[in-house]
Amino acid sequence: QFAKPNEKSTDYPDMAKEAGQKALADAGIPYSAVQQACVGYVYGDSTCGQRAIYHGLGLTGIPIINVNNNCATGSTALFMARQLVEGGLADCVLALGFERMAKGSLASGFSDRTNPMDKHLEIMINKYGLASAPVAPQMFANAGKEHMEKYGTNPEYFAKIAWKNHSHSTNNPYSQFQKEYTLDEVLHSRKIFDFLTVLQCCPTSNGAAAAILASEVFVKRHNLQPKAVEILAQVMATDYPSTFEENSCMKMVGYDMTKKAAEKCFEKAGLKPTDVDVIELHDCFSVNEFITYEALGLCPEGRACDLIDRGDNTYGGKWVINPSGGLISKGHPLGATGM
């Protein structure tokens, strides 16, 4: 279960051990069958991945590759593990992610060098300025503000997404928060920035997750077909010129790369958005889930409100989106959540 950071928090080797052992047990294989490991975390010294694996899972001398890719860290570890298997370089790879975070809003770790978000922030500052508030909520709130200005969106729709996700969390025993709120409680909870309230923002969290990636040959050799889940397609994208050239806060927070990645993924899988039933997506803030509906092609641009009004993002609708409760309820230990 993801948990709120505090001084008595379980340390990362123990979190990683639990996740890794449960993944191996679920797959029904010993750690000795793992040929490589890709480990994701953001807040930790170099080689935390080795420390997490050595004394929790085993010392077999395999390559252990550490990944730090901010909110995409866990999914990047999974992406790398899948590539190793798909490319024929390994038959069985462990993807592991963990995080032990500090309390409060995210902060930059270094003040004596260029901030990797400096060019993104320039766009936001040029358009809406910079307030004395945590930067991440400002970035996503301003993306929402842009959507409001462009399409006349009522910010209550952002709150409706958080309301839905908190409701979903009551079914997830691993969620950091498992409490249902009324829409009014979401709207009138403590303000973080502009229309974004605390119940529309993901919390900082501690936690770990793991997955075993294996080739079809390995699966058949170990008679794992009943347990195996096939990855039909996976695509990773980074920023395009439009992120920086169009003075758009929606594109600054990743709209275009999400749209391109989704298009490529559906093409590779031979499917379209209407073929999907369940979606887990990145709701670091309610606004991001909202604009991701449009980026994924679930509805035309500017029409996410209609999707919500139809109930097409929850049980009984076209899709069940974030049945886990999403990051808003489940928590957001960066290295683990993309797994």
Task: Describe the structure in your own words.
- The protein has a domain of 227 residues: Thiolase/Chalcone synthase (Peroxisomal Thiolase, Chain A, domain 1, 3-Layer(aba) Sandwich).
- The two termini are 14 Å apart.
- The chain contains 15 helices and eight strands.
- α1 crosses α2, α6 packs across α12 and α11 crosses α12.
- The mean pLDDT is 96.
- 41% of the residues lie in helices and 10% in strands.
- A four-stranded mixed β-sheet has the order 2-1-3-6, sandwiched between helices. Strands 4-5 form a two-stranded antiparallel ribbon.
- By secondary structure, the chain is of the alpha/beta class.
- One of its GO terms (cellular component) is peroxisome.
- It comes from Rynchops niger.
- Its main location: other.
- GO terms for molecular function: acyltransferase activity, transferring groups other than amino-acyl groups; lipid binding.
- InterPro entries: Thiolase-like, Thiolase_acyl_enz_int_AS, Thiolase_C_2, Thiolase_CS, Thiolase_N.
Biggest sheet, strands in spatial order?
2-1-3-6
| Overall helicity | 40-55%
Oligomer: single chain
The share of residues in extended strands comes to 5-15%
What's the CATH class label of the domain at 12-103 and 203-337? Answer: Alpha Beta
CATH fold-level label of the domain at 12-103 and 203-337: Peroxisomal Thiolase, Chain A, domain 1
Rg measurement, Å: 20 Å
Uncertain ranges: none
At CATH level 2, the architecture of the domain at 12-103 and 203-337 is: 3-Layer(aba) Sandwich
| Main pleated-sheet profile | 4 strands, mixed
Q: Count of helical segments?
A: 15
Shape: globular
Distance separating the two termini:
14 Å
Main structural class: alpha/beta
* CATH-level-4 superfamily name of the domain at 12-103 and 203-337: Thiolase/Chalcone synthase
Mean pLDDT: 96
Please trace the helix and strand order, writing H or E for each element: HEHEHEHHHHEEEHHHHEHHEHH
